[in-house]
């Protein structure tokens, strides 16, 4: 790819060019990954070490009670890992309706009854067992050191921490673990997380067994029972992550790969399949015409995803039907180039999150995402081991007709999605964008910029983004061209300009393979929206 390395946007960043690269949203995490690479580890080892550090330095977005997904190139082929956890065995619609009323539509947003089995830790172990080089315990050493010695809270994380405190301060374990000052932190406050250090040491010593079959599992089950939850030792012991084949679709001579449902990665594939029917490259890159087509394609994709996607074995349509070319062409014909529309689902039968990526000079590339869902997840924190538990259970429905209806041992609809790009069967880019339903929107917008407009990864990362919410509602970043904003409004989009880019427009990390990894290496970019850092050597 012959990129244009002129960056027309506000960021003064330049891409990182190196043979070994780690790109994350916190410098201490990137340093941890590089430390492992310099000790002889590979990209998988670096990703695990980085993920462990991220549970500490960005606790708003992930923790030791998170779920995770990964797509990795091992040097020869692509592999996917689904490390999202299922519902406790006691969960049924009747369980929730008895506790929260017959009119409840979903499990609660926060609290112990929003917690499914956490999958991230066992995901780390699965990656290490299959592809790692260094001993698993070595990979957690940087995180243990940071948990014990502490770090200074940075501005972006502090802002989210402070915003979450009034909502979650009364949840069990939250204040004890995350408000040691008796308040939310100020920028520059030293945060030590000794309880998490205790957990990390047990996880390192037992290769994760303490978490799912030992002392941490017992502590989590006690904590859940004490606060009226359903999670048991048996639920934790039964959990295993799943190696999966990524789903994919071609776009502009490349192939985008996503994790299959229960995740929403298929939304990016659908949107690009629709956009492929238009000559986007003939339109100016930041023009209203180009942005309008992308928005409408994304809206069509979400209409189907929200209607049909759940855990794959419970879906009433297949991913192949949803990605069928004739079906996507019929959906593309619904787009009015002059007018915004509120699309409904079609009929395919007829036709807080952190993201990181690492790559090494042997050619291994890792696209990894880890999340507690909403900021600080459930808000519940097991105090002895500092396990901050996600709230993925809120993603279930309590409606019997929904494909995503809650059931014992079922995985909920998931928002977190790593991505990977190949060309002619060879690796091109590991990448991802954080932030709820912004993730497939970010995948599509950045790929269009790189593949249709030849913008380099850092420019594509820095460019102003839009975010579809629902109906005709669109948010756009304040940096978007005023004439484009007005043009979108003229087409009927209900548009709001937002200054809080961290919350509304995600943040991304990108590693593009420039050639032979041991010679040309990689081009890496990291998002300024979350003070991201790409580092390499």
Summarize the structure.
With 537 residues, the protein is α+β, with helices and mostly antiparallel strands.
Kindly describe this structure:
It contains 20 helices and 21 strands. The longest helix has 21 residues, at 288-308. Helix 2 (43-57) runs antiparallel to helix 4 (120-131), helix 6 runs antiparallel to helix 9 (194-206) and helix 13 (266-275) crosses helix 16 (325-332). It has 537 residues and is α+β, with helices and mostly antiparallel strands. The chain has a seven-stranded antiparallel β-sheet. The protein has a seven-stranded antiparallel β-sheet with strand order 7-4-3-11-10-2-21. A hairpin with a 2-residue loop joins strand 8 and strand 9 (254-258). The mean pLDDT is 94.
Any idea what the shape is? globular
Give me the secondary-structure category: alpha+beta
Can you list the strand order of the major beta sheet?
1-20-19-15-14-9-8
Q: What is the overall pLDDT average?
A: 94
Largest sheet: 7 strands, antiparallel
In what range is the share of β-strand residues? 15-25%
Distance N terminus to C terminus? 22 Å
The total count of helices amounts to: 20
Helical amount among residues, as a percent range?
Answer: 25-40%
Q: What ranges have pLDDT less than 50 throughout 5 or more consecutive residues?
A: none
Number of strands: 21
Rg from alpha-carbon coordinates: 22 Å
